[in-house]
Design goal:
Transcription regulator AsnC/Lrp ligand binding domain-containing protein; Dimeric_a/b-barrel; 4-stranded antiparallel sheet; sequence-specific DNA binding; 3 helices; Tscrpt_reg_AsnC/Lrp_C; single chain; globular; alpha+beta
Length: about 110
């Protein structure tokens, strides 16, 4: 293990937390389109989105959206508030399309 760590193969370790136990039982994937894709807009959006604790992961992607966010909140009213008051007000956001997770499947038996 030490050799793999020193070689950079293992970059770190992480803890898996059950979101429901910390008040985040609703997971939403949000596709975000920006008004313009200028460097300044991208930097401003990325700076803002990384400050939102509800955003667990943010992926800059190709396709219909510029970004795909994984958002975890307590429930649907909490997401509605987050969407209206934080996400939609980030710099450069044109549209947000939300996908509410009904069930998460994993190949990991733990």
């Amino acid at each position: 293990m030490r050799q793999l760590e020193e070689a950079g193969v293992i970059r770190g370790y992480r803890e898996l937390i059950d979101p429901a136990t910390v008040g985040r039982s609703l997971r939403v994937f949000a596709g975000v389109r920006l008004m313009r894709h200028t460097r300044a807009n991208v930097v401003a959006f990325e700076r803002g989105v990384t400050q939102l604790p509800e955003v667990v992961a943010c992926h800059h992607i190709t396709g219909n959206f510029a970004y795909l966010l994984q958002v975890e909140v307590a429930d649907l009213p909490a997401y509605e508030d987050f969407h209206a008051n934080q996400l939609a007000s980030l710099p450069g956001v044109a549209t947000v399309t939300s996908y509410v997770t009904m069930k998460t499947l994993s190949a990991d038996p733990t």
